[in-house]
Hints:
This protein has about 210 residues and is α/β, with parallel strands linked by helices. The radius of gyration is 17 Å and the shape is globular. The model is unreliable at about 185-208 (pLDDT under 50). Helix content is about 30%, strand content about 25%. It has one domain: Rossmann fold (3-Layer(aba) Sandwich), CATH 3.40.50. Strands 1-9-8-7-2-3-4 form a seven-stranded parallel beta sheet, sandwiched between helices. A two-stranded antiparallel ribbon has the order 5-6.
Amino acid sequence: MPDTAPASLPVHADERYAVFIDGANLYQTAKALGFDIDYKSLRRVFREHGHLLRIYYYTALLDDQEYSPVRPLVDWLDYNGYSLVTKPLKEYTNVAGRRKYKGNMDIEIAVDVMEVCKHVDHVVLCSGDGDFRKLVEAVQRQGCKMSIISTLHTTPPMVADELRRQADFFIELQDLEPEIARVNAPRNAPAAAYDDEDEEEPDERAVR
Length: 208
């Protein structure tokens, strides 16, 4: 059973760490909690703890990226301190004959985490997907701590029980809401500009 972390991240000041964000999973988790993420504030929170090596963000994109709702967010992240990992969404037809899209990034996340964990003391994974339990176990065998960011405050919880129990620390996303939520912006509203020069707040609507 992991420790439940306080609102601040459970990263020691002398630890080197990296953050891996499962974009689709984090989006759905925040949406289930009823708030939108301010990715500039999220970046600031991560930078305030330990020695942050890198923040990775994973998402699938429509081939016709010009019309992808996630494109503004991806472009903003790419220019503002996030390392983007993307791949095309795959189109398929389900048994009912309806067109669907699939863009699972689990393999990409797992490969990168196993590579990076050799160079850090702590890995933070923003996902509640139970498929990552074996990844967490493998990282721990390398002598690296593993934290999970997700939520228990939904019905059902967005984090798989086996993943939460395997992790060294569980960070409740709702506890971070005061620090990372977009304010004064209705859901799916166009994003306003930041005061910072050459930085704009991303529109976090996404194809999920």
